[in-house]
Description:
The protein is an all-alpha fold. It is built from 13 helices and no strands. It has a domain at about 190-235. About 65% of the residues lie in helices and about 0% in strands. The radius of gyration is 21 Å and the shape is elongated.
Amino acid sequence: xxxxxxxxxxxxxxxxxxxxxxxxxxxxxxxxxxxxxxxxxxxxxxxxxxxxxxxxxxxxxxxxxxxxxxxxxxxxxxxxxxxxxxxxxxxxxxxxxxxxxxxxxxxxxxxxxxxxxxxxxxxxxxxxxxxxxxxxxxxxxxxxxxxxxxxxxxxxxxxxxxxxxxxxxxxxxxxxxxxxxxxxxxxxxxxxxxxxxxxxxxxxxxxxxxxxxxxxxxxxxxxxxxxxxxxxxxxxxxxxxxxxx
Length: 245
């Protein structure tokens, strides 16, 4: 039995399941480096993943390892990501599109990045096998780009407008959709995006404020309930120590 391959397979499976690989004392330095790289990849530390992987000499073999290299290099703006994205595309075209979107975004080509991100997330509506960690980071990138330009936001909304296969990351998708609609400055009806989360919206101050603002600006009747929720939240907040001085 090849214990190196067993160790690598277990680390890869953990990332695919959206959990952290075990870093065991009995691992060789090379095994440990690969496991640490995959741990960082699953934990959104993309540049750190590349750093750990380069401490050993084995080339990426599995789809998860190739995805890790592709996305990590893309985050660094390294054109070497393209070759890995092409390899990844043979297994997971949606993940490959995410990589290209990230690479273009980090290379200052936001408009082209949007095209790839929209294509990726439209694929995910029918593909239940993409890595959750990559999808989650992709949604965060959609949010990030939407804040840069209202026209980009209007185009990006298509990426988050509908659920993905088996409703993966649906709560986060809906929150990003609402934020993107707001960033579009009227090009996308924000009330539609916020309305998708009624009657149980995320109970966070920033979200409740944005929801109430959206309904007020669009003269939506749900503004009454939204303002009431916001006031209820504020009333329950503990008084800051300095306020009593």
